[in-house]
Please model this.
Amino acid sequence: MQNLLFGIVSGSMLALAAIGFAMVRQTEGFLNIAHAQFLVLGAFVGVVFVDTFAVNVFLGAALTFAVVGIFGVAIAKLLLDPVRKSGSLVLLFTSIGIAYALYGLIMAIFGTEGRSYPVDFGPTVDFGFASITVGELLIILTAVAAVAGLWVFLNRTVVGTWIRAVASNPELARLRGVRVEVVSSTVWFIATGLAGLAGFLMGAMGTVTSEMGWANVPLILAVAVLGGIDRIYGVMAASMLLGVIMDMGVLVIPSQYVPVLVFGALVVALIVRPNGLFSTSRRAEYAV
Amino acid sequence: MGALGIYLIGIITLIAFYAAVTMVLNIEAGWGGLWDLGVAGLMGLGGYFYVITTLPTDNDYGSLAFGWPHWAGVLGAGLFVAAVALLIGTPALRLRGEYFLITTLAFAEVVRQLAINSESVTRGTVGIAGVDRPFDSFVTPRGYTWVLLAMTVLAAVAVFFISRRIARSPHGRLLRAIRDNEPLALSLGKNVARQRIITFAFVGFLYGILAPLYVWYIRSILPAMFASHLTFTAWTALVIGGIASIGGPAIGAAVLIALTEALQFIPVSPEYATALSAARWILLGAALILVLRARPQGLISEQRSMRAMGRRRDAAPLSITPAMPKPGDGAPGDASGRSTLTISEVTKKFGGLTAVNNVSLTARQGQITALIGPNGAGKTSLFNVITGFEAADHGSIKLDDEELAGLPPWRIAQRGVVRTFQTPVGFPKLTVQENLLTAGSSAASEGLRAGLIGPRTWEREQSEVAGKAAVITAELGLTVDQNELLENLSSGDMKLVEFSRQLMAEPAFLLLDEPASGVNPANLDRLVSLLRGLVERGIGIVVIDHNLSFIMDVADHVYVLANGAVLTDGPPHEISQDERVIDIYLGSRA
Model:
């Protein structure tokens, strides 16, 4: 039971990291490999706020979201927009270039030594069958709040509706007067901001290192694909599932074999359900 | 020779190694269209296979060992990786683009984790050090850098000639065709799935035999050597050099490795080692971003590479053997020698929607059979079912007495039922001539074996096919430069290439999906006479179109579809008078 709870905590953080990746894939049409580096950036920016400047944890998280989000928008405008017309393969590899450069920059600025947050996770809440610290509970609540906020934003605001329109049919959305550049900037802000927030939480839970981005690339890709790369709620469900499987898996098999199990399962799942675990509809591939 | 000299030789060796890996990646990714992020995984398997099989049985570690000779270990590594590629490729190659990319990435991660954790075999993260190398006992350690350089350069040169030979062969052309337009390749009778698996197993073999070079270079094997870094370096080199070109991958590898290794020359005290490593990553990232912005195609573009190849072919033109194509070689036909395509009670449902509802119709060679009906009537769905792109839920599709239902699309095309698609994009990155040759070539001359053995296996057939192409294009009045890429053609010329190409496949029946759409009304008469000319030659045509007057001009028999079912059928002049037909077209739905 304890492991189930840990699984939900890791799943929540993974979900925050992966939702932004899926949003960019959906509205911008390419796999943004640099996404995981925004995670690292968030973790370090958070350390600077909370540790160096002794900012309150909640304010620090909000500031991290904003700073990383704005940085993400700037990167998208400066580096990705100019190659947009060259197609998704060039965008994908430009994002790999951005990932390399960000990784180097982070290493140059923050060094390779691990850092940790001076945070106190507070008292442990005991439910009888399992226990959890207040801090971990807050992480789950943050993830839930972020997702709920995203839902409200996507479904109840004009820009949110535009985003959904662009995601389902970019050509039609453009024709119907959706302001594509506003959608693009908003998506980048939210997506990279969420990645920064996820990095903040992961950093608070463990140690911050410059390597944590690359380590998360396969996981983010895995849940994005398992969830169905164009379905935000599928991605969330897949994140939770993966988090729980990883933390419950250690009960059944030696912990070092858990990644083998996870990625083996991913390969099998993809082959059995090529459009993701939660896909319901099937598109006719050869029409038109 | 000083330390600098040794270091320089080391860099050239590394460049040659990455050039070889990148050229192999180019075969599968650039030409084959397989977005493989599992390169490190495949090479890791080869590396470990080699080390474990060649490790002396009386080794100090007491680990698993077989004591094979080096050549057997290298060859075995190639075959082993090819076998694994076959195993994971058979199901995974059903996945397209990004999904294949992620599956292979996950596969590589599984390999790396297994290498880390199977300590009794791989000795975990520490790895197996001091691996015995071929010719090790003949030369000093210093002299060995030259031996390794020679072996690696030799391997790179060999891979270069293999990849250039493939690029120039019908096999390379087929790979690029499948990459550009898989449904079209299927509709021309190409066994796409088989081709993909062969490609994946072949590059697996090459990765396998290249892996030992890397082991010799590092002098040991450990999981960190086969982290995703290896894959991303090869991909970066490929993208910078020019994906799908011939010389680009090697140039990209040279530029990339030289750039990142040059920084090691800067003498710095150890405390700045991190800064240097950071600078390397920033430089690598900046190079990738800038090259892609300035030259999205890479330093050498596919177009330039393939054009150069086309010119070389012009210098020694394929001797053209004019020959008139016979319609439908495979089809037996009835007493008059004419075949019949019979569709009986075909039904196709998508979820709750019945796209095709109990449709029966007959088409004969020497006739034009038309299918009309409003949008969503099920016309294209019916085409998809007839040509095997969608499986029918119920019903039979017969060419004379042979059942076609249940056959894969490429087999149906080989039986002589060839379709077109609504958007005639063709194979955009192939030249006009390549488009036509692809359609007319046999599986034997387009095979990997023919590609590797060389021109003598395919030159003769290609000349004959080129002759046929010349006759067909002359007849259809296609006058464009045969070495122009298809994507640079006007839409009118593209349409003519479309017809020429599908005719090159020698169809018994040609299924045309909206041939008149996008055609200038002034040219419709030409289209009508073109189609009439084809049926006079004995081909059977089934045509879908929205343009009623065009259909009434061209068709011998018309079927009207509405809501997935046949509403009525008859000769054009009857159909044009039928009130129900007028109703559905002029809209009395209210």
Observations:
- The mean pLDDT of chain B is 86.
- Residues 3-226 of chain B form one domain.
- Chain B touches chain A through 55 residues (CB under 8 Å).
